[in-house]
Amino acid sequence: MPLSFRSVAPSELSRFEALVIDAFEPITWARKVDELYGPLNGKDWRERWRLRLANIFETQILLAGEVDGEPVAFASATLDSAAALGYIDLLAVGRRFQGKGYGRAMLRGMLRHLKEKGARYAHLDCMTTNEAGNNLYRSEGFTEVARHIRWFIRIP
Question: Which of 22, 65, 85, 141 has the CB geometry, 3.0–4.6 Å to 73, for a possible disulfide?
């Protein structure tokens, strides 16, 4: 079934929080940090994601992808109007909805949304181990411009 898109209000955080955390569970680097160091200051990766999402819902452009009113995908972004550059921060598809083309549809929906707001370019990050994501972005015409390594240390 096709996705319908709509803007999301900051007050809808609870409606999308579980979907985003579920989507990122297999691929987030924050889980690896917990495996190596345990919860940070008593907060496991899920709680850290909840805190991150609360900030995202207050500060970013939010877009939902729904099927018959049920959230199946979510994306967030910011816009640098001076550079006409949209930064896609999150692109999430609930795991039970993955493999049905909703990620591609959500990406295209956010790109259209950013274009309507004046963006002419878009940027996003993806873990090198997220093969499905990287294949999607390549197939949609994104060009890899750099790779980076996330380093981490417990401060002695």
Answer: 65
